[in-house]
Amino acid sequence: MANPPTHVVPMGPPLGTTVAVKAQEPWVENLSLNLMCRECKEDPPNIVEDFSAGDTICGSCGLVLGDRIVDTRSEWRTFTNDDQNNDDPSRVGDGANPLLNGAQLQTDIAFVGGASAKSRDLSRAQNKATHDKSTKTLLAAYKEIGSLCDGIGIPKNVSDTAKHLFKITIDENAFRGKSQETVIAGCIFIACRQCKVPRTFREIFDLTKVSKPEIGRVFKALEKFFNGRNEKTNAAIVEAGGIPDPNGSGFNAAVESTTPKDLCLRFCSQLNLSQKCTTLSQDIAIRAETTGDLAGRSPISTAAACIYMASYLAGEARSAKDVSIVAGVSDGTIRNAFKLMLPNKERLVKPEWIADGRADFKRLPLA
């Protein structure tokens, strides 16, 4: 019978003997190791990193070699440096403001109450070194334009347009002798026309406290300035062999003047009139301009008289006093314009309005 195998147990060091323990070395990445596809075993390997899926894929056979990789690229796409062969620096910070000058990449040293004297001195020195008077002037003007536009509910696109117009005038020193408030009033007036939300001289006067004659003069000067600037731009485009935009390049001040139809929509909304009455007043305003029944009257007076007439025709009567408060003209002016329109009422109101019963001449008041 065979003897069973014997196991040799290794003996430790004798008791009382000191054994030196080797310290564990920190982990260091072995840069000589390369990831290789276990199917293709190509050298050098054809490895593709699919950041959209978070996978590491073999470009030859499609085997997924790893997952959950970290995307180290930029957080958003940019095309600003395509023609400059530069890296994308847009990793942190706010986007550039086109309404301000400079690269806008400076660092500000903050100073709050309770900070040390050294922090205060550093903040003062930094402010003196980076002080830009033109940027400070623009920021103050932009703040005023924003507050004025918000005060009467003008949309943000109008405010941004007015800021851009003001920046153009500042960059070219076009109105150095004019007060800043006057130029701002003219820019807001032009921006309202360009964005199809026209305001009258009276409304801009109530908003900015710049007199109506002064607003008219600065508007003419701004119109001449922007038109001349556009002509120079178009000439440069033609000289370079290009074709200028037929709809106007950039900001064109030569826009159509405010029409009574444009004012009817806003005035009717303030009077809480229905859409039917608003449409009727706009239709009457268009016909009054075409026939010349109110020739020589201002757009405000014409719009107010058309609204006054349409409110009675549609059965939503508003007094001349109510319309005058909204339009900003006297009730006597509205009644006088209505007297001129009354004999030609059949010509000013479409026959289908009467046939459908949406309007009735019997509701009109006596002149």
Question: What would your notes on this structure say?
Answer:
- The structure is a single chain.
- The chain has 367 residues and is mainly α.
- It has helices at 117-129, 133-151, 156-171, 180-194, 201-208, 212-239, 260-270, 275-291, 299-313, 320-327, 331-341, 345-348, 351-355, and strands at 47-50, 55-58, 64-67.
- Helix 2 (133-151) runs antiparallel to helix 3 (156-171).
- The model has no long low-confidence stretch (mean pLDDT 79).
Radius of gyration: 38 Å
Q: SS-based structural class?
A: mainly alpha
Integer average pLDDT: 79
Summarize the main sheet: 3 strands, antiparallel
Give the end-to-end Cα distance, rounded to a whole number of Å.
Answer: 141 Å
Strands of the widest sheet, in order across it, are 1-2-3
Gross morphology is: elongated
Low-confidence parts lasting 5 or more residues at pLDDT below 50? none
What amount of the residues lies in strands?
A: under 5%
One letter per element, helices H and strands E, the order comes to: EEEHHHHHHHHHHHHH
The total count of strands amounts to 3
Proportion in helices: 40-55%
Count of separate DSSP helical elements:
13
